Amino acid sequence: MEHRVDIEFTDENKRTVLHHAAQNGHEEATRELLRFEADFSTLDRIGETAFKKAEGRNDGGIVAILSGRWKDTEAATRQNCILLKYATGSGDDTLFERVMLKRRSDAKLLTER
User: Fold this and answer.
1) 45-73: per-residue pLDDT in tens?
2) Which side of the chain, N or C, has fewer Cβ within a 10 Å radius?
Protein backbone atom coordinates (compact mmCIF):
# COMPACT_ATOMS: atom_id res chain seq x y z
CA MET A 1 0.00 0.00 0.00
CA GLU A 2 2.79 2.37 0.90
CA HIS A 3 4.30 1.76 -2.55
CA ARG A 4 1.11 2.95 -4.23
CA VAL A 5 0.00 -0.36 -5.71
CA ASP A 6 -3.30 -0.37 -7.58
CA ILE A 7 -5.73 -1.76 -4.99
CA GLU A 8 -8.50 -1.68 -7.58
CA PHE A 9 -6.62 -4.00 -9.96
CA THR A 10 -8.89 -6.82 -11.14
CA ASP A 11 -8.04 -10.34 -12.20
CA GLU A 12 -9.53 -12.22 -15.17
CA ASN A 13 -12.78 -12.64 -13.19
CA LYS A 14 -12.92 -8.92 -12.34
CA ARG A 15 -12.22 -9.66 -8.69
CA THR A 16 -10.28 -7.05 -6.75
CA VAL A 17 -7.81 -7.66 -3.95
CA LEU A 18 -10.69 -6.91 -1.57
CA HIS A 19 -12.77 -9.69 -3.16
CA HIS A 20 -9.92 -12.14 -2.57
CA ALA A 21 -9.26 -10.97 1.00
CA ALA A 22 -12.94 -11.29 1.89
CA GLN A 23 -13.38 -14.62 0.14
CA ASN A 24 -10.38 -16.11 1.93
CA GLY A 25 -11.14 -14.77 5.41
CA HIS A 26 -8.25 -12.32 5.71
CA GLU A 27 -9.68 -9.86 8.24
CA GLU A 28 -6.57 -7.73 8.71
CA ALA A 29 -6.05 -7.40 4.94
CA THR A 30 -9.72 -6.45 4.56
CA ARG A 31 -9.37 -3.74 7.21
CA GLU A 32 -6.20 -2.38 5.60
CA LEU A 33 -7.75 -2.32 2.12
CA LEU A 34 -10.72 -0.39 3.47
CA ARG A 35 -8.40 1.96 5.34
CA PHE A 36 -6.81 2.75 1.98
CA GLU A 37 -10.32 3.28 0.54
CA ALA A 38 -10.70 0.13 -1.56
CA ASP A 39 -14.05 0.16 -3.35
CA PHE A 40 -16.22 -2.38 -1.54
CA SER A 41 -19.09 -2.06 -4.03
CA THR A 42 -17.12 -3.39 -7.03
CA LEU A 43 -18.89 -6.29 -8.74
CA ASP A 44 -16.93 -9.22 -10.13
CA ARG A 45 -17.74 -11.02 -13.38
CA ILE A 46 -20.69 -12.86 -11.81
CA GLY A 47 -22.03 -9.75 -10.10
CA GLU A 48 -20.79 -10.36 -6.57
CA THR A 49 -19.20 -7.90 -4.16
CA ALA A 50 -16.53 -8.66 -1.55
CA PHE A 51 -19.36 -8.83 0.98
CA LYS A 52 -21.09 -11.53 -1.06
CA LYS A 53 -17.84 -13.52 -1.11
CA ALA A 54 -17.62 -13.31 2.71
CA GLU A 55 -21.27 -14.21 3.05
CA GLY A 56 -20.73 -17.22 0.81
CA ARG A 57 -18.18 -18.62 3.22
CA ASN A 58 -20.36 -17.64 6.21
CA ASP A 59 -17.62 -15.36 7.57
CA GLY A 60 -19.28 -13.13 10.15
CA GLY A 61 -16.01 -11.32 10.91
CA ILE A 62 -15.50 -10.11 7.34
CA VAL A 63 -19.22 -9.37 7.00
CA ALA A 64 -19.02 -7.13 10.07
CA ILE A 65 -15.91 -5.33 8.80
CA LEU A 66 -17.44 -4.63 5.40
CA SER A 67 -20.84 -3.63 6.76
CA GLY A 68 -19.22 -0.97 8.91
CA ARG A 69 -17.93 0.85 5.81
CA TRP A 70 -21.03 1.16 3.66
CA LYS A 71 -22.04 4.58 2.53
CA ASP A 72 -25.40 5.97 1.47
CA THR A 73 -25.34 4.66 -2.09
CA GLU A 74 -27.44 2.41 -4.28
CA ALA A 75 -24.85 -0.33 -3.77
CA ALA A 76 -25.13 0.16 -0.01
CA THR A 77 -28.89 -0.25 -0.16
CA ARG A 78 -28.44 -3.52 -2.06
CA GLN A 79 -25.77 -4.63 0.42
CA ASN A 80 -27.98 -3.74 3.39
CA CYS A 81 -30.70 -6.02 2.02
CA ILE A 82 -28.15 -8.82 1.60
CA LEU A 83 -26.77 -8.23 5.10
CA LEU A 84 -30.22 -8.37 6.69
CA LYS A 85 -30.98 -11.58 4.80
CA TYR A 86 -27.67 -13.03 6.01
CA ALA A 87 -28.30 -11.89 9.59
CA THR A 88 -31.75 -13.48 9.75
CA GLY A 89 -30.55 -16.80 8.35
CA SER A 90 -27.17 -17.04 10.06
CA GLY A 91 -28.30 -18.88 13.18
CA ASP A 92 -26.72 -16.15 15.32
CA ASP A 93 -29.63 -14.85 17.39
CA THR A 94 -27.91 -11.55 18.17
CA LEU A 95 -26.56 -10.74 14.69
CA PHE A 96 -29.82 -9.30 13.33
CA GLU A 97 -30.17 -7.05 16.39
CA ARG A 98 -26.54 -5.88 16.13
CA VAL A 99 -26.99 -5.13 12.42
CA MET A 100 -30.15 -3.12 13.06
CA LEU A 101 -28.47 -1.14 15.86
CA LYS A 102 -25.50 -0.41 13.57
CA ARG A 103 -27.81 0.73 10.74
CA ARG A 104 -29.70 3.01 13.16
CA SER A 105 -26.43 4.44 14.46
CA ASP A 106 -25.15 5.06 10.90
CA ALA A 107 -28.41 6.77 9.93
CA LYS A 108 -28.19 9.02 12.98
CA LEU A 109 -24.63 10.01 12.06
CA LEU A 110 -25.72 10.85 8.51
CA THR A 111 -28.54 13.11 9.73
CA GLU A 112 -26.26 14.89 12.20
CA ARG A 113 -23.87 16.03 9.45
Assistant:
1) 998 888 888 888 887 888 888 876 655 45
2) C
Rounded to two decimals, the pTM is 0.60
CATH class label, 17-112: mainly alpha
Q: DSSP characters for the chain?
A: -TT---TT---TT---HHHHHHHTT-HHHHHHHHHTT--TT---TTS--HHHHHHHTT-HHHHHHHHTT--SSHHHHHHHHHHHHHHHHSS-TTHHHHHHHHHHHHHHHHHH-
Question: Contact, 32 vs 61, CB < 8 A?
Answer: no
